[in-house]
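The methods section describes the discrete structure representation at length, but only in general terms. What matters is that the chain and its backbone geometry are given together, residue for residue. Nothing conveys this as quickly as seeing an actual entry. For illustration, here is how one protein appears when written out as sequence plus structure tokens:
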Amino acid sequence: MTKLELSKTGFQINNVNIEFPIDITVLKQALGDCRYIKKQYNHVYTWDKLGIMAFSKEGNKAESLAIEFEVREYDYCAKSIFTGEFIFDGEELFQYYESNKSQLVKLFKGDRSGAFILNGTSVWFDKENGKITSLSISSSEEKEKKITAPLDPEYKSFEPLWQEWILEINKIVSTNNDYYNLADGISEGDIQEHLELEDDITIPPALINFYKVQNVDYDPVTAVFQFGVNNWSYDLIPFEDIAEEWNSIQDLQFDEEDLPEQEIDFEKIQTNNYANPKWIPFATGRNGDYLLYDTDPASKGKFGQIIELQNESWDRNIVADSLEELIKNEIKNLKAGKTDHFDFIIGKEN
């Protein structure tokens, strides 16, 4: 039986020491002869009876291994599934997985599966419909822990608000859910890199301090940290993606002669186009609708009021007087059992 063992001291396959990139002769020493296919961008070595594949850019050293739990129809895939043993940090891998899901690390934007990293080696879980179908093993440098930027004193209230919001969400959705996307707060480097949207338009201090407490990871499908507003779900936008979403809104501005008639409370909301460029998006409905932080209100409006921008109807409505009020409303609704916007996410829990 094939045995893989990854520990704090090294990685072994059938008691043969393995280091990435792996010399193909070493893999053959550990696993025996294999089938070889040259693809367009890499060389693939396949151990059909073992459910193992190795991928090499140049052909002589493998940068990654794949352990298959389902037979796939591609010509380079193994013809049998892996039935061997994988010991991770002294424990059977899947037993370790079940009890340590909180230790999974996202390797890329939109990664819903995550990986375990040990001794410079990552084990990434490929999942389809909640089921683990394969593992990808490769070298991984552990990221240096980011130092979160300190809160400005006037925004200290965001800390207990975030804590209460997280607490209520955790009562509804497991932290192990694929769509649970909470991330560490932003650093000074993040702020400097993403603060400016245009020459005279920047992300306002309140939003910056909100993200200093916690940020979120991007997910291509949906995300746990969201707001339910007017029977629609708005996913919190990762801080680093605000500029991209802002640009998407600006792309929809009209030429003056083509501008449709607008029905807006112009005493509170100031715009002479599709959207005011000084409205800063922080939550998206993924359909062109947004929640926006207003940094340029009309005479009777409030700086920091939250505007819901609806793409198709062109409605622009104030849904909260402040970001704090929006979060408090969300917490209040969660406590009252208004959790319909989590139905899909809960339904996808393993």
